Hints:
homodimer; 315 residues; alpha/beta; Nucleotidyltransferase, domain 5; 5-stranded mixed β-sheet; globular
Amino acid sequence: xxxxxxxxxxxxxxxxxxxxxxxxxxxxxxxxxxxxxxxxxxxxxxxxxxxxxxxxxxxxxxxxxxxxxxxxxxxxxxxxxxxxxxxxxxxxxxxxxxxxxxxxxxxxxxxxxxxxxxxxxxxxxxxxxxxxxxxxxxxxxxxxxxxxxxxxxxxxxxxxxxxxxxxxxxxxxxxxxxxxxxxxxxxxxxxxxxxxxxxxxxxxxxxxxxxxxxxxxxxxxxxxxxxxxxxxxxxxxxxxxxxxxxxxxxxxxxxxxxxxxxxxxxxxxxxxxxxxxxxxxxxxxxxxxxxxxxxxxxxxxxxxxxxxxxxxxxx
Amino acid sequence: xxxxxxxxxxxxxxxxxxxxxxxxxxxxxxxxxxxxxxxxxxxxxxxxxxxxxxxxxxxxxxxxxxxxxxxxxxxxxxxxxxxxxxxxxxxxxxxxxxxxxxxxxxxxxxxxxxxxxxxxxxxxxxxxxxxxxxxxxxxxxxxxxxxxxxxxxxxxxxxxxxxxxxxxxxxxxxxxxxxxxxxxxxxxxxxxxxxxxxxxxxxxxxxxxxxxxxxxxxxxxxxxxxxxxxxxxxxxxxxxxxxxxxxxxxxxxxxxxxxxxxxxxxxxxxxxxxxxxxxxxxxxxxxxxxxxxxxxxxxxxxxxxxxxxxxxxxx
Lengths: 315, 315
C-alpha cells in the first residue's frame, strides 16, 4: 500500500480535508469553502488544487497516494456517480472519474456522506471492532448508514440507510420534507424534537415546565430539562425514544447488526437518549436481536473524513 | 470448478435432495424422510448416506463434487454453526464441520432455509438478473431473506431477514408465536389472513359474504372471493396489502434493493396480492426506492435446493 491517502467530506458550506497516513492516522486536516455557484462546478477542482498544494508543501507526489475518498451530501450509485446534490447545485456528476482525472488518475472512491460517516464510526469510532454496524445520525434531519462486512451498503438507488424516512406514525398531519407524513425524522431530528415539544406545550396549556419560558426552544433544552427531572421534558424524550426504538427494531429485523451507533447533534444528550431508545427497542425487537449493543458516536465532525479515507484504505 | 454439487433443503418432515451439475442444472432430485428422534442425530448421516449412494449409482466420486449446500430451518451463524432448530430437535450443531467430515472433507456451506430460498429465487427465479433482492415468504408464518451482491445476509445472530416479526401494529391484543404483539406475521401469513377474516366476520355480523358459509376458511378462499369482487374479502386483502406494503417500505429504507420477490403459499394468489401490496407500498416508501419492482417467486418448493447449491457454486 502506498504511504498516504486523503479523506474528503463535502458539505454545503465547507469541505473538510483530511490528509492521512495509510495506517489511518491523521497527518493534517483543514477546511476549504464550498463554492456552490454555477452548479458547484468549482467544488472538485478546488479539492484537487488543495490536495496538490498539500502534497507539494510536504514534498510528496501523487504517486505516493493510495487514493482519495470523498463523501458527498447526496445519493451515490455504486459506480461513484452522484445523482443530484441539491446543497452543492450538482445534477448528475461522475465524481470518481472527474476527480480522478483532475488528480492525474489517482484512485477515487465516493460515498454518500451519512454512509461515509457510518463507515468512519465503524472503523475508528463507536462501532470499532464490529463489522456490521447500523449508524443513526440525529441532526437537523435523521440520516443513517448501514455497514455490512466493513463496507458501505449503498443500495440500488443510493438510498440504503435512508431511515429518516421510515414511516413510524399513521396519525401525523404535518408533511415531512420528503412529501410523506409520519417519517421518523419528524420526531427524532433536532427540529423534530423541538416540533414535538411545541405541539405538546400548545396542546397542554396548563402543564408547567421551564420549557414554556424559552423562546425558541432547542432540542438540547428538552434533553437538559429532562435530565433535571422535568416531567414534561421527560415525556417528550420518551416519545423520541419510542419512535427511534421502534424504527431501530424494524432495522434489526432486516439486517441484524452487531451494534447500533447513535450520532449527530442530538446524540450529545448522551445516556438519557440511549436509555429512552433502548426502553422502547427491547420489547419491539425480534428476540434474536434484542440484546444488540447501543453506542454513542465518538468521532463527531471527523467521522466523515475517517470514513472517506477508509473507502480507499479497505483491507 | 468440479463438475457436480448438491443442494439440500432440510425440512421438519422431509429433506429435499438436489443433485446438480456445476452449471446449476438439475441432474436429479428426490426426498428422504427427516428423522427427528434422538435430537435429530440421524439427519446429517442420512444426508451423507443419500449423497454417497447417488454418487455410487452414477459412478462418481466425492472428488468430483464442488461442494454441498444445505438449508436448515433455524438461525445459522456465518461460520456454518446452527443455533437451535426446534423442528429438527437440534441444539447447537456445527453443520458445516459435521457434514463435511461425514463426506470425507467435501466443502459444505450452510444457510437458514428462508435465506437459502431467497438466494435460489435471486439466482434462478423471480429475482433473476438482480444482485440485490429482498424475498418475502408468506407461508404458515412470514419469513424473509436479504440477498446483497448475490450473497445471503445472515446477520450477527443469524436473524437478518426475520421480517415476519417486524411490529406493524400498536393496537394488537393477540400474542404472536414470538411473544410480541402486532407482528407482520399476524396479518400476512396464511394463518394471519384467516385470523383477520374470522375477526372481521365476528365484528361485522350483518355483513354478507360467501366466506360466512365456509368452515374453516382458508387464505386461498379469501383471495379467491376477492377476485370475484366480494367486498368483504377485498377489505381483508386490503389490510394484508397495507401491512405488507408498509413493512416493505421500512425494508427498502434500510437496504434499497433492486427487486422485491413475494413467495410462499399465499403468493399463489398472484397479481391481486401484488396489487394490494404495491397500493400501500408506493405512498409509504422513500421516493428513491418508490419504483422498486415487485415480482412473484417462481421456483416454489425447489427454491431451497437451488439456493442451497448456489452457496457452493457462487462465482
